[in-house]
Amino acid sequence: MSTVACINIADALVSLIAAATLPQAVTVERRWTAPLPREQIKAPLVLVVPIAVELDFETRGEYASDWQIALAIYAPASGTPATATVDALMELAEAIYLIARSNEALAEGRLIALNLEPMLDPEAIIGRGLFATIATLTYRSIAG
Predict the structure, then answer these.
(1) What tens digit of pLDDT does each residue of 12-24 get?
(2) Residue among 108, 116, 102 nearest 143 (CA)
(3) What's the pTM value of the predicted model, to 2 decimals?
(4) Domain tally for the chain?
(5) N or C: which end of the chain has fewer CB within 10 A?
(6) 45 and 73 in contact (C-beta within 8 Å)?
(7) Strand ranges, E, within 1-144
(8) Which domain holds residue 18?
Protein backbone atom coordinates (compact mmCIF):
# COMPACT_ATOMS: atom_id res chain seq x y z
CA MET A 1 0.00 0.00 0.00
CA SER A 2 2.85 2.42 0.76
CA THR A 3 4.29 2.29 -2.75
CA VAL A 4 0.85 2.83 -4.27
CA ALA A 5 0.27 5.88 -2.04
CA CYS A 6 3.67 7.31 -2.99
CA ILE A 7 2.89 6.86 -6.69
CA ASN A 8 -0.53 8.48 -6.20
CA ILE A 9 1.07 11.50 -4.52
CA ALA A 10 3.65 11.79 -7.31
CA ASP A 11 0.91 11.56 -9.96
CA ALA A 12 -1.13 14.22 -8.14
CA LEU A 13 1.91 16.53 -8.12
CA VAL A 14 2.40 15.98 -11.86
CA SER A 15 -1.25 16.89 -12.48
CA LEU A 16 -1.08 20.01 -10.28
CA ILE A 17 2.08 21.30 -11.94
CA ALA A 18 0.88 20.47 -15.47
CA ALA A 19 -2.40 22.33 -14.86
CA ALA A 20 -0.77 25.41 -13.32
CA THR A 21 -0.15 28.73 -15.01
CA LEU A 22 3.63 29.09 -14.84
CA PRO A 23 6.06 31.80 -16.01
CA GLN A 24 7.35 29.40 -18.70
CA ALA A 25 5.98 26.33 -20.43
CA VAL A 26 7.28 23.08 -18.92
CA THR A 27 7.10 19.36 -19.55
CA VAL A 28 6.17 17.43 -16.38
CA GLU A 29 6.81 13.70 -15.99
CA ARG A 30 6.81 11.12 -13.22
CA ARG A 31 9.84 8.86 -13.55
CA TRP A 32 11.80 6.28 -11.62
CA THR A 33 15.02 7.06 -13.47
CA ALA A 34 17.65 9.76 -13.72
CA PRO A 35 17.06 12.72 -16.03
CA LEU A 36 17.61 12.59 -19.75
CA PRO A 37 21.07 13.35 -21.12
CA ARG A 38 21.66 17.13 -21.41
CA GLU A 39 21.43 17.10 -25.20
CA GLN A 40 17.86 15.72 -25.00
CA ILE A 41 16.64 18.50 -22.69
CA LYS A 42 15.45 21.21 -25.09
CA ALA A 43 13.04 23.08 -22.78
CA PRO A 44 12.28 23.23 -19.03
CA LEU A 45 11.62 19.73 -17.70
CA VAL A 46 10.11 18.90 -14.30
CA LEU A 47 10.66 15.36 -13.02
CA VAL A 48 8.64 14.00 -10.11
CA VAL A 49 10.49 10.99 -8.73
CA PRO A 50 9.35 8.84 -5.77
CA ILE A 51 12.58 8.14 -3.88
CA ALA A 52 11.88 6.65 -0.45
CA VAL A 53 9.26 5.21 1.88
CA GLU A 54 9.85 5.21 5.63
CA LEU A 55 7.59 3.22 7.92
CA ASP A 56 7.23 4.32 11.55
CA PHE A 57 5.53 1.98 14.01
CA GLU A 58 6.05 4.23 17.04
CA THR A 59 3.84 7.21 16.14
CA ARG A 60 1.39 7.54 19.01
CA GLY A 61 0.32 3.92 18.69
CA GLU A 62 -0.59 4.35 15.05
CA TYR A 63 1.00 3.21 11.82
CA ALA A 64 2.66 6.05 9.89
CA SER A 65 4.34 6.25 6.51
CA ASP A 66 6.53 9.05 5.22
CA TRP A 67 7.07 9.28 1.48
CA GLN A 68 9.90 11.26 -0.05
CA ILE A 69 9.50 12.56 -3.57
CA ALA A 70 12.16 14.43 -5.53
CA LEU A 71 10.94 17.39 -7.53
CA ALA A 72 13.70 18.17 -10.05
CA ILE A 73 13.68 21.04 -12.50
CA TYR A 74 16.06 21.01 -15.46
CA ALA A 75 16.47 23.47 -18.33
CA PRO A 76 19.12 24.16 -20.94
CA ALA A 77 21.43 27.04 -19.96
CA SER A 78 24.37 27.13 -22.34
CA GLY A 79 27.81 28.26 -21.26
CA THR A 80 27.64 31.13 -18.82
CA PRO A 81 24.02 32.24 -19.30
CA ALA A 82 22.91 35.81 -18.76
CA THR A 83 21.68 36.68 -15.30
CA ALA A 84 18.21 37.30 -16.74
CA THR A 85 18.07 33.71 -18.03
CA VAL A 86 18.94 32.25 -14.64
CA ASP A 87 16.58 34.71 -12.91
CA ALA A 88 13.71 33.50 -15.12
CA LEU A 89 14.51 29.85 -14.36
CA MET A 90 14.73 30.58 -10.62
CA GLU A 91 11.32 32.29 -10.84
CA LEU A 92 9.96 29.17 -12.56
CA ALA A 93 11.45 26.90 -9.87
CA GLU A 94 9.98 29.03 -7.11
CA ALA A 95 6.53 28.95 -8.74
CA ILE A 96 6.68 25.15 -8.99
CA TYR A 97 7.82 24.73 -5.38
CA LEU A 98 5.02 27.06 -4.22
CA ILE A 99 2.49 24.87 -6.04
CA ALA A 100 3.77 21.84 -4.14
CA ARG A 101 3.76 23.75 -0.86
CA SER A 102 0.32 25.33 -1.30
CA ASN A 103 -1.20 21.95 -2.14
CA GLU A 104 0.25 20.38 0.97
CA ALA A 105 -2.75 18.16 1.64
CA LEU A 106 -3.21 15.59 -1.11
CA ALA A 107 -5.58 12.62 -0.98
CA GLU A 108 -2.86 10.22 0.16
CA GLY A 109 -0.86 12.41 2.54
CA ARG A 110 0.13 15.77 3.98
CA LEU A 111 3.34 17.65 3.17
CA ILE A 112 5.54 17.81 6.28
CA ALA A 113 8.84 19.01 4.77
CA LEU A 114 10.27 20.64 1.65
CA ASN A 115 14.08 20.66 1.49
CA LEU A 116 16.11 22.53 -1.12
CA GLU A 117 19.77 21.56 -1.11
CA PRO A 118 21.08 23.53 -2.95
CA MET A 119 18.46 25.72 -4.59
CA LEU A 120 20.74 26.14 -7.61
CA ASP A 121 23.71 24.09 -8.86
CA PRO A 122 26.11 26.60 -10.52
CA GLU A 123 28.52 23.83 -11.56
CA ALA A 124 25.78 22.19 -13.63
CA ILE A 125 25.17 25.44 -15.50
CA ILE A 126 28.81 26.18 -16.25
CA GLY A 127 30.08 22.62 -16.70
CA ARG A 128 27.14 20.97 -18.45
CA GLY A 129 25.04 23.88 -19.71
CA LEU A 130 22.14 22.68 -17.59
CA PHE A 131 20.07 24.58 -15.04
CA ALA A 132 19.28 22.13 -12.24
CA THR A 133 17.46 22.47 -8.95
CA ILE A 134 16.07 19.64 -6.83
CA ALA A 135 13.76 19.67 -3.84
CA THR A 136 12.84 16.74 -1.63
CA LEU A 137 9.21 16.73 -0.54
CA THR A 138 8.21 14.56 2.42
CA TYR A 139 4.57 13.54 2.80
CA ARG A 140 3.05 11.74 5.78
CA SER A 141 -0.01 9.58 6.09
CA ILE A 142 -1.21 8.08 9.35
CA ALA A 143 -3.68 5.21 9.40
CA GLY A 144 -4.96 3.64 12.58
Answers:
(1) 999 999 999 999 9
(2) 108
(3) 0.83
(4) 1
(5) C
(6) yes
(7) 27-30, 45-59, 62-76, 105-106, 109-116, 130-143
(8) 2-143
